[in-house]
Specification:
The chain has 176 residues and is an alpha/beta fold. It has helices at 13-20, 28-39, 72-75, 89-112, 130-146, 161-175, and strands spanning 46-47, 58-60, 65-70, 116-121, 153-156. It is built from 6 helices and 5 strands; from the N terminus they run ααβββααβαβα.
């Protein structure tokens, strides 16, 4: 069994309540993805299917497509660079490292089993980006059912690298 760091006391009662309110299933982004899949006519998926490595948030067993819907804060989004907690920094760094290691392990296991893995980030489901992101997810899920695709990972809705760099530079400039 993996030894875990002791969970530190919350810095305030309000912080404690906010953290307790975080859910792991049926989150807003998850519900949005599922609604878009249904609207596109893609039904027959399983939620948190235990037979697939890593229990993907949405799983199409027949198509061998696994969709992970990651929250930007908990999974450390590479697109929006979420802030880090200032209190108990060491605990949070360890927690985030464990989350990223688990995500990598789950994706590797699915790829080894021949699955197509789609990763949807919470920030990619915000207003203005959700339609394009979901169009890519729907297209990939349909392609997987039409013909057997080689196992691969798609970061759905990811903007080009140059756009990411420009957005980060703008954020840094605003902070100064």
């Amino acid at each position: 069994m993996v030894a875990r760091a002791r969970v530190p006391e919350a810095s305030s009662e309000a912080t404690r309540h906010v953290m307790q309110a975080n859910r792991s299933k049926n989150t807003g982004p998850e519900l949005a993805v599922r609604a878009a899949l249904r609207a596109a006519g893609l039904t027959g998926y399983r939620l948190h299917w235990k037979k697939a490595p890593g229990k993907p948030d949405v799983c199409f067993p027949g198509r061998r497509v696994a969709i992970f819907i990651h929250g930007c804060f908990w999974h450390r989004c590479p697109h929006c660079a979420p802030s880090r907690p200032k209190t108990h920094a060491q605990f949070w760094e360890e927690k985030f490292a464990r989350n990223r290691a688990r995500d990598r392990r789950d994706v590797e296991q699915l790829l080894a089993a021949g699955w197509t893995v789609l990763v949807v980030w919470e920030c990619q489901l915000k207003r203005g980006r959700a339609e394009a992101t979901m169009a890519r997810v729907v297209t990939q899920a349909r392609r997987a059912s039409e013909r057997r695709l080689p196992a691969h990972v798609l970061d759905a809705g990811a903007p080009p690298v140059w756009r990411l760099r420009a957005a980060r530079a703008r954020r840094r400039a605003r902070r100064r």
